[in-house]
Design the sequence.
């Protein structure tokens, strides 16, 4: 329980950080807003055609008597919408981070500077970081699709499918979200996807404490936009704890509220820290 509370604490600390640095909050919402517009259009279209899709996929049930036909297809529609939301929550974060790579990279660096005085560098060129981000985002989408299909199938199991499975789905979603959000700070420390998973699984409850509340909040699209900058800031603080990095001793509250924390200001030289 202590690790769950600690993980949630970093989510709150991240929101506090962007609240104290208002320009970075607005700066970090730009990619999320861009992504939201595309996702909203796709989901509205998809949900509008859900009944037709379910009917097309289940022609064998056309002759079933009422009310069994309506109950069967209604349950499938609910499951289908649930899986779509599950995939949307996961991929929204991945796509937003990909679209906003330069935005969130800068935000994460500033969090490191205010907390530790310097920000680790990966030493990789920008194109290489973008390629790694794209490759890892694709891997995440594939994994999310597999989990989504599994949860969809398990949703047919009586009782368990309507109680245990949704809880498991949120836990998996929360873990994936934490994995995505920590990728920015960990990549700058030279930690790639395979090692990142190992680190997060080693602190599973800590990770779920951070990711699951965020998954619940991200069910509301506008909430996801407003929380995204703070989620990136919180993930950076989370990574600092995960890697055992110490906060600055000359800044008791860790805010470091100086000119360097404003978008567009050239940051002080960084020191590399590879993992």
Sequence:
């Amino acid at each position: 329980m202590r690790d769950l509370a600690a993980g949630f604490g970093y989510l709150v600390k991240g929101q506090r950080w962007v609240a104290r640095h208002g320009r970075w909050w607005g700066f970090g919402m730009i990619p999320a807003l861009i992504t939201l517009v595309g996702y909203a259009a796709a989901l509205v279209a998809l949900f509008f055609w859900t009944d037709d899709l379910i009917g097309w996929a289940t022609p064998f049930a056309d002759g079933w008597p009422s009310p069994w036909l309506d109950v069967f297809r209604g349950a499938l529609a609910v499951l289908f919408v649930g899986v779509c939301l599950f995939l949307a929550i996961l991929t929204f974060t991945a796509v937003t981070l990909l679209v906003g790579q330069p935005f969130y990279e800068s935000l994460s660096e500033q969090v490191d500077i205010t907390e530790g005085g310097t920000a680790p560098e990966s030493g990789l060129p920008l194109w290489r970081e973008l390629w790694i981000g794209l490759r890892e985002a694709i891997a995440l989408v594939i994994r999310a699709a597999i989990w989504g299909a599994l949860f969809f199938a398990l949703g047919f199991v009586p009782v368990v499918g309507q109680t245990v499975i949704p809880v498991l789905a949120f836990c998996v979603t929360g873990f994936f979200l934490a994995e995505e959000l920590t990728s920015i700070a960990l990549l700058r420390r030279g930690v790639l996807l395979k090692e990142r998973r190992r680190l997060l699984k080693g602190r599973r409850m800590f990770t779920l404490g951070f990711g699951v509340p965020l998954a619940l909040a991200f069910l509301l699209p506008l909430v996801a936009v407003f929380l995204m900058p703070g989620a990136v800031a919180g993930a950076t603080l989370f990574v600092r704890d995960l890697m055992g990095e110490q906060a600055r001793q000359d800044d008791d509250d860790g805010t470091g509220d100086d000119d360097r924390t404003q978008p567009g200001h050239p940051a002080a030289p960084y020191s590399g820290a590879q993992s």
